[in-house]
Amino acid sequence: MHFFIRKRRGTPTVIIVALIDILIVMLIFLMVTTTFKQQPALRLALPESSQARRSGASESVPLIVSIDAEGNLRLGPNALPLTADQLRAELTARAEKDPDLNLAINADKAAPIGQLVKVMDAVKEANIKPPSMFTREAGNP
After folding, report:
1. Do residues 68 and 111 make contact, with C-beta atoms less than 8 angstroms apart?
2. CB 47 within 8 A of CB 135
3. In the predicted model, is pLDDT for residue 16 greater than 70?
4. How many angstroms separate the CA atoms of 100 and 117, rounded?
5. How confident is the model at residue 111 (pLDDT cuts 50, 70, 90)?
6. pTM for this one?
7. How far is it, in rounded angstroms, from Cα 27 to Cα 89?
8. Chain-wide mean pLDDT for the chain?
9. 3-state helix, strand, coil in the chain (%, to 5)
10. Which phi and psi (to 5°) does residue 94 adopt?
């Protein structure tokens, strides 16, 4: 009787370089196909204006104060919730750092007018030039 002697197989090796190459290709693919569009933190129904104009790309990015339909105030790109007194103090501090501060108000069309007045008072108290308002063109949804 003749028995076959099996040779011991070595443990399989994983080629790390090939895996890294695949990982880099996938990473590049995801970076190219992903859009980096900023989504607003608040959904606001902007009021219409027949005199609305688009701001140019050469203008500096304004500091944005948002007022939602319930009258809640939010400040900046992170949409930090604030009270009217906190907003006044924050605007004063930022105006001292940057005297040419651009400010824009992004208010829902159902926002309470009292909150808008409080924001305008805080702007005047901080000696900031009159803010611009976000609107949408008449007839556009």
Report:
1. yes
2. yes
3. yes
4. 22
5. confident
6. 0.58
7. 44
8. 80
9. 30, 15, 50
10. -70, -35
Q: Where do the DSSP E strands lie in the chain?
A: 48-49, 63-67, 73-75, 80-82, 103-107, 132-133, 136-137
Q: Which domains does the chain have, with CATH numbers?
A: 48-137 (3.30.420.270)
Query: What is the distance between the alpha carbons of residues 82 and 59, in angstroms, rounded to a whole number?
Result: 26
Q: What is the pLDDT of residues 42-56, one digit of tens each?
A: 666 666 666 655 655
Q: Is the dihedral of CA 107, 111, 115, 117 positive or negative?
A: positive
Sign of dihedral through CA atoms 76, 80, 81, 87? negative
Distance CA 91, CA 63 (A): 10
Rounded CA separation 128/123 (Å) = 6
| 134/66: higher pLDDT | 66
Pairing of strands 73-75, 136-137: unpaired
Write the pLDDT tens digit of every residue in 18-29: 889 999 999 999
Residues 112-136 have a mean pLDDT of 85
Q: At residue 116, what is the residue type?
A: L
Residue reference for tokens 């809640």: 72
